[in-house]
Amino acid sequence: MKCDICHEEEAFYKRTYEGVSLCRKCFVNNIEEKVRRTISKYDMLSPQGRVAVAVSGGKDSLTLLTIMNRIEREFPKIELAAITIDEGIGGYRDEAIEIAESYCKEVGVEHVVLSFKELFGHTLDSIVKSRRELTPCSYCGVLRRRAINEAAKTVKADVVATAHNLDDEVQTFMLNLFHGDVNRIARVKPVLNDFTGRFLRRVKPLCEVVEKEVALFAYLTGIRFQSMPCPYMSTSLRNDMRSILNRMEAKHSAGIKYTAYRSMEKIREMLEKSKVGVELSNCEFCGEPTVAKVCEVCNLLGEFKGGEATTGRCPNSCQYLHP
């Protein structure tokens, strides 16, 4: 079977949801072009500025860095930097950091690593051992978002690019429905603009690429990435949602993830038109933007030993003030 794009090379991949077959070269070019179209469609980047790419060492983030690095060559006024967050997960994160550092050195991109320990005074492992109220992923998600923002500031970035793929976006959409937090759908979008001057603009260039095609791109282009899953992954509701969506896609309808993604976009558009949203204020302790008096980061950190009922800096050297 010949490739449906070039009509010359032998096809190796059947994209069922579109009904097309692609050869290796056309597949790689198609994914890169899809990311370029996504960036243009949502006006994610300007022709100049400094972009911090969040790189975990996994297939998604290294694929994003690869494509962003190719785009940068065409726009000499764009500068790239890679930022990696070390959550402090024993036996897991060290390999990912080594892979990220090696790849950034290979492609000549500045790389900065920031850890939970130096930023918050705790590793994720120590947090999980101390507290059991929430799943490890709940703690990690809150702290990781803040850490990425802080790391991006250290490289003087104008915008942060994260490697959320289409599967990630649909999973988040469904989880918000399951949690009854429909209004949050309006805040989960391909571009999160900063209208306050208090946090960095965030973009998701891979948001319209399905996860399996990101993995295939990484394999075909020879990207070395960490394949071992996070040891805490199995504890999250997101992991169950990933399995549910994959089973539905395989058993019932090819393209169901894209259908859910388009539904999410329509709902978000309606919510935005109805002006559903939240007013941001400054956290009473760290001063970061928050929808409440105290931000999620300070609320979480205030639970740990040494942080209760203090109005000064954490005794564990965390730079944040705790409630």
Element layout with pairings:
Elements lengths: L12 E3 L4 E3 L1 H18 L7 E6 L4 H16 L3 E9 L6 H15 L2 E6 H5 L3 H7 L5 H19 L4 E3 L4 H13 L12 E2 L8 E3 L7 H10 L16 H15 L4 H18 L7 E2 L6 E2 L5 H6 L22
Helix pairs in contact: 1-8, 2-8, 7-9, 7-10
Features:
single chain, 323 residues, alpha/beta, Rossmann fold, two-stranded antiparallel ribbon, 11 helices, 10 strands, globular, disordered C terminus
Helix/strand-derived category reads: alpha/beta
Shape: globular
Q: Classify the helix fraction into a percent range.
A: 40-55%
Measured on Cα atoms, how large is the radius of gyration?
20 Å
The CATH topology label of the largest domain is Rossmann fold
How many domains, as an integer? 2
Contiguous runs where pLDDT drops below 50 for at least 5 residues? 305-323
Write up what this structure looks like:
By secondary structure, the protein is α/β, with parallel strands linked by helices. The chain folds into 2 domains: 29-276, HUPs (Rossmann fold); 278-323, no CATH class. It is built from 11 helices and 10 strands. It has helices spanning 24-41, 59-74, 93-107, 116-120, 124-130, 136-154, 166-178, 211-220, 237-251, 256-273, 296-301, and strands at 13-15, 20-22, 49-54, 78-86, 110-115, 159-161, 191-192, 201-203, 281-282, 289-290. The protein has a 6-stranded mixed beta sheet with strand order 5-4-3-6-8-7. Strands 1-2 form a two-stranded antiparallel ribbon. Strands 9-10 form a two-stranded antiparallel sheet. Strand 4 (78-86), helix 3 (93-107) and strand 5 (110-115) form a beta-alpha-beta unit.
